[in-house]
Amino acid sequence: MTIKVLLIEDEKNLADMIAFFLEEEGYITERVHHAREALQLFPQFQPDIVVTDLMLPEMDGNDLVEAFRQHSTVPILMISASTMLNDRLRALHNGADDFLCKPFSLKELDARIKALLRRSIISYQDKLVKEDKQAEITGHVNVNEYRRTLFVDGVEIEVTHIEFEIMKELYRNPGKVFTRNELMDRIKGSERAYLDRTIDVHISSLRKKIEPDPKNPRYIKTVWGTGYKYVI
């Protein structure tokens, strides 16, 4: 599994050094130097972990963490030249998962990243197990991303790769209206032309597999003129 790291560091030389090291270790790394750039890149890049400096142009690192936490539980490692206890406590209180003081060993940075990812994966797996149990009790549609399986009324349903990816995106964001273009971008990225307008075909196939009455869908709703949304 390739890990994606979003690095936010305004010291260009340090950012280049960290990014080079992480890429040598096998991570996919996107580096930016401003908080505004990080907020713009985050939804498209969808990092597995964020490494951010405390002192940034335009926005304090703590404010950036708070902005991320409004819509994401991604692990966040704060780095800073500050050794003051209050700075560390504030960062952790605002939503950072760990704090590393400069100067630091790149090997330690790697170890901190791996530790945060281990905790995140364990927490995520626990959440999926809990969701599976809830699905069996309530009989709702359930998507298990870890096992890449779809359940209806506790029964595993066979779906294609693209059908699963569509259902995963809808299920992650109940109530959110997705345009066809948004779904194509999230599923295929740069290969989106492959799907063209066949999103409708995949949605129709999904409805036949999960809906009690595909002609009057309960879960995957059409928003006329826009796209689709998932209703719990």
UniProtKB/TrEMBL annotation:
The keyword Transcription is annotated on this UniProt entry: yes
Keywords noted in UniProt: DNA-binding, Phosphoprotein, Transcription, Transcription regulation, Two-component regulatory system
All copies of domain OmpR/PhoB-type, residue ranges: 132-232
Pfam families per UniProt: Response_reg, Trans_reg_C
Annotated positions of the 4-aspartylphosphate modification: 53
Record's signal peptide: none
Lineage: superkingdom: Bacteria
Annotated ranges, domain Response regulatory: 4-117
Keyword Kinase: no
DNA-binding region, residue intervals: 132-232
Protein name: Two-component system response regulator RegX3
Source organism per UniProt: Paenibacillus xylanexedens
